[in-house]
Amino acid sequence: MQYRRDKKGNELSVLGYGCMRFTKNGSSVDLDKAEKEVMAAIKAGVNYFDTAYVYAGNEAAVGEILDRNHCREQIYLATKLPHYLIKSVAGAEKMFQEELRRLKTDYIDYYLMHMLTDIPTWEKLKKIPYPLRREAARLLTDGIFSGKERNRIRGMLLSAKTAEDLYEKSSLSEPFLGRLTLRPGTARCVFDTYESGFLPGVHNNLMLMDLLMYHPDDILTKVDRTAMAVSLESRVPMLDRDVVEFAWTLPLSMKRQDGRGKLILRDVLYRHVPQELMERPKKGFSIPIQKWLKEPELLAWAKGLLAEDKIRREGYFDPELVKRLWDDFEQRGIWRKQIWHLLRFESWLENEAKIS
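Request: output the structure for the sequence above.
Response:
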C-alpha cells in the first residue's frame, strides 16, 4: 500500500475505503459481510475510511465493526455533516453528537461538508444562519479540520455571505492563494462594486457578473490577442447587441435546466448536426506547462525565476507559499495555472529591471 502525508502529518493510504453503501441483508446492513470487507481492507494497509450521516445504518455499522475488532486507533475516520439538514448551531451540534454515538468514538479525524456543489445547494445553504456557516468555515479553513485541501476549499465556499460572494470565492482553487501576495492590490474589479441581488434571481446575477468581468477580462482578451497576433480581425456574433438583449429576455428554463446549459442553442444546432457529435466532453486550449517545464532549459529558467531568496528579496509574494506551489507542481503536477502566472510576472519583472 502506498501512503501520502497530509498537511497535519498524517500518513494516509492512497486508496481509501468508502463505507456509504454496504451490502444489505433485507433492509439492514449485512454486518458480517461488511465486517469481513472492512477488516480485509485494514489488513491490506488501507487506513482511511469514509462514511456519511445520510446513508442509513452505515455509520452505525462502521462503529460496530471498529468496536468489535478494537481497531479504531489503527485508522483515520471521516464522516460528513449534511448542511442541508441543519437549521441552527444547536442542530449541528446535536447531529455531530449523534454521529459520534453511531461511530462509537469520541473523535472524528476528518469532518467534511456533504454535497456542497452548485446554485441549488447555495439556495439551501443560505438558509443556515451565517454565524453558523462562518464558524464551520473557520474550522475547515484554519481550524482542526483544515488538514485536507478539500476541507479548506469547502470552508472557503461555505463562508460566502451571498451567491455573488460564492461566485468570487470559487475563482480561488485554494484559500491560501488569496494570501500569496504580500501587498494588497489597488486594482478594482466588478466584484468590488457589484451589488448583491442587483437583478432578480441568483442565475441572472451570476450571468451578469460573467458578462462584466469573465468575458472582457479573460476569454475575449485571449481571442483578441490570438487573432491580432496574425492580423486577423475577429468577431463574436453571439455578443451582437441584439442577440444579447434577446437572450436576457428569455426565461431561465430556455437557457438552463437539470445542469445543462445553452439549451436554446442546442435545440437549434441539433436540427443541423447529429446530436452524438455534440454531446462530448469539452476540450480546452490549455498550454502544456507541465510538459514544457520538464525541458532542462525551461526548468532551469523557471527555478531561477522562483528562487526562494529572489522572491523574498523582491517582496511581492510570500516566499514560503511560492515554494509550496512549486513543490506541489514538481511532485504532483498541480497548480499549473498559478505557476505559469507567477513565471510570467517574474519574467516581466526581470525584463523591466533590465530596461531601467
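The first strand starts at residue 3 and ends at 5.
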